[in-house]
Amino acid sequence: MQTMSVKKLIARLKLIEKQCGDLPVVLSSDSEGNNFGTVNHTTVGVCNGLLLIMPFCDCVELKSIDGYKEQNNV
Predict the structure, then answer these.
(1) d(CA 40, CA 60)
(2) Which of 2, 6, 35, 65 could form a disulfide with 29 if both were Cys (CB 3.0 to 4.6 A apart)?
């Protein structure tokens, strides 16, 4: 199964930052956005040759995250 490389992820994040500014990062638990988690420096690392991003706090309400705005997604 293929996934995005670090280089491509950085390019995508730079584009989003350019268009939208320095936004808070939230991790979805699945493709439907049923649950969300926060990300911090302790939940991003490398294991077995893969960059892993894991939730710091699981099952958070989006509205409870600083920076949340009711608007259209990019």
Answers:
(1) 14
(2) 35
